[in-house]
Amino acid sequence: MAQSDARLFALVVAINTYQSSQIRNLRHCVSDSNIILDYLKSTFNVVDTTALDPKGLTPSPSIVTLTEQAATRSAILSTFKKHLINNPHIKPDDPIVFYFAGHGTRVKGPQGWETNSSDGYIEGLCPSDEKTLHPKTQDTIRCIPDVTIWKLLKQLEMKGRRNVTVILDSCHSGGMRGKEDESEFAEFRTRTATPDDRIPFPFDIDSDIWQMDEPLSFGGVLGRDRAYESSTLLAACDPRERAHDGWFTKSLVELLRQTSGTTRTIAEIAAKLREIKATDQTPVVLGNPRTILFMPNDIDVDKKVFELEVLGEGRFEVKAGEIHGIGPGALFRYAYGVDLEVDRADMFISSLVLRPPITAVEIPNGARVSAIPAPNSTERISSTKVWLGNSNLGRHIKNDRKWFEIVKDSERPTANVSVTLIENYKRVKVDLLDELFVKTGTSACVFSVSEVVDKLEDLLESIALFRYHLGRRPHKEVVPTSTSPSARTPSIPSNYLQFPLNGNVDPLWSKCSIGLYETHNIDGIRVVKEPPRNLFIADANGGYIANLVNSAATTYGIKLENRSRDTELYFHLFYFHPSDYSIQAWALGSGNGSKVAPEDSITIGYGSGGGYPIWFTLDDPLRSETGFIKVFVATQPVDGMRIVEQSGVEDLLPRRLQPAKGMIPEKKQWGTFVATIKVDTR
Fold this sequence. Notes:
Rossmann fold, 35 strands
């Protein structure tokens, strides 16, 4: 499952023997570290590793190990900073792994500390010199608290590391239990370093780490918080349980080796670990449930994972099609180096063939494949045309992208996006020029040159994907009398970003309606304020817009209605945020759409089943902003619509799927509706 262009960087810490006589030793931590090392080396083709002795050696550019006496508190922290945070060789998508096998502990947090437990205790990892005296200060050396680990992970985030995995084979819950005839060893990796709360835990411990800068976030029109931390945690057990010495690492690696050649999301790994858990030990898995382990967050997910049906004679089928934005030329990955290419796309289904040079491989029915960021078709059906106001900006673009093209000065009137340098070439201004954005007052985005100059290609692709998914609708076709699918002639999809976006209402949407309402809380349930007033209004141009006032205290809800008398409909609701080009999924039901019976409705943001409320605020109270609500509706369940989502400028690596070009007309239907959200300063 290793990526050929990604290099692993890991810090592996394992301690059997502790320096303090107050701490019982363990048996299997070092051998467990060898198991994880063997797995990482074979998976990522690592040949260079460095083990640090107590005097310390220069870290290699790949894996560093700290074992036994070398795994002191200062060595763990300094090596983490030097090898993982400040390592200039690490690229944003490179996998980073921090592994710890040893004792864990819980201690009473100092007064004034924020803790996650009701009893005020914090968790910590025990270094090899835990409970010994510092040679210079003569202070007792204490554990590495969870807040310090968290702060170090935040520093990785600030460095742009978005592919971080933390594996902790230790325990942070109560009680040590050892066998009477083996009293030298602890059977469990838990609290053998029993805290002595008579000695207060230092309030300012690791203050140099805590005082590091926090990562910045992007503001704008805000809906629901969908952010995930950039790291994944795999822990040996629940905080209230004890971790068996020698069980978790072995079980985890066995599971990962069993899935070699396939991709597993974090949610799938969590479910599998629950199945094989020890009788009194439940592993904990935290992180974005849709990401794939050891892969960056944008190569992901349930968003892009589909089951494959084997048709025979080298042909396959996947339930992903035009409604997902997929068409001929899109790629799906089965295993590393084994890709399948779409050669025909229907509304909801696509047929695939193996992509050369692989022409024959045994793929089981029901295998999971993931859409990958690699457009293949040379056609630019939905290409975004970009005009650069400064020729120097073009030096950072390879001109081999499929989702956008650079236009000459003479072609500037045809451009959809303009990129110019302002403020004495210190800032980059990006304007969206489509009629929709101009007439709805969508603000330009401004970045510092240092933020985007090396990522301009990815920024433009993020914008292109944003435009594509916002504008696309079902295609109209000219269907000849022949019933042969190959005889059907699809029309070329137009640029749907004129204003209004719903100028020609999709036939299916004519059976639907949408309302945006202000809500408030009554007896713990959020309901629509009386009298109900739909904030979406038709403007003079035939579009729909809701003019809202900037207020964090005002909440809203959405009602989607199926007005048909005999057809079940499935709704997928997204929010498009032009200030950072993100696309957020607000309502997908159980994943295949929110099912609504004929003449019935669902609510989002209010009612007993509506989930969290929706709100809109401005990061800059002096500037209004615009966003867009888009609804996809279909006559059948549609899995995988999270493929539309993208996190925008926060990671600058969008999905790059080939746009759909045609469909086979049947009784199946899908349609869309778009409305504008305008948030003003007053």
